[in-house]
Amino acid sequence: MAAVKNERGGYIYLPAGFPFSSGAAAMPGYEIVHALFRRPVPWRDGFTTIEKRFEAEGRPKQALCGVELRCPAPMTPDGFHEFNIGYRAILEEWDIITDGVNPVGRTNVSPVRNPPTETLMYGFSYTVESTEMSTTFCGAGGGETSENGNVSEGDMSQEGMRKKAARVMEIMMERLSGLGMTWKDVTDVNVYTAAENGDWLAAELLPHMAGDEVHGVRWYLSRPPIIGLDFEMDLRGYRQKFWL
Which domain CATH number covers 25? Predict the structure, then answer.
């Protein structure tokens, strides 16, 4: 998985597909910062907030490198694609899409409790100019997909979830490597699943973290955005995080 430079945005990214990339890392002279809404807002309103913030900070729209959404319920593949058409249209309007490729990573999950009635924006990441030497990145969400289909589809037993987590960890490790990062660069480990008995989780995550689990793991009681998936993760590394 080879990273591509986005000179206009000040970051490199891992190409993935139509709706999003697999993540981004800041280029020298920049860092990625993380903004979170205390109360998530309708996703289109979220883009309005981003636009105003970038104007105030003197950042181009191309600085956007990550978006976090919360949807009402997991979707069919067709429903997911339909949403992505409208979502990508905004990125095209903002002149973020480069040679047909979307550089912006995304995590989109559905809360189990008190799900929203419409898709909301929970947070976003973007680059700012920086003289700091720290490495910063934002990974996109990834579920238990494989070339042979979803891993242990429909099986939420302890063993089924262990296999799902193992597959997702493989994906996360590939993305870390692709962005030139290691576990020492990770500050945020986010897990999204409706499985409430997590005995299987530590066994699959901690060995890979190689002693760098000091920041812990954050679990969101949420489902991945597509029906048939049960486990999702993303990894992030920030120096600055703030609430809106």
Answer: 3.30.1330.40
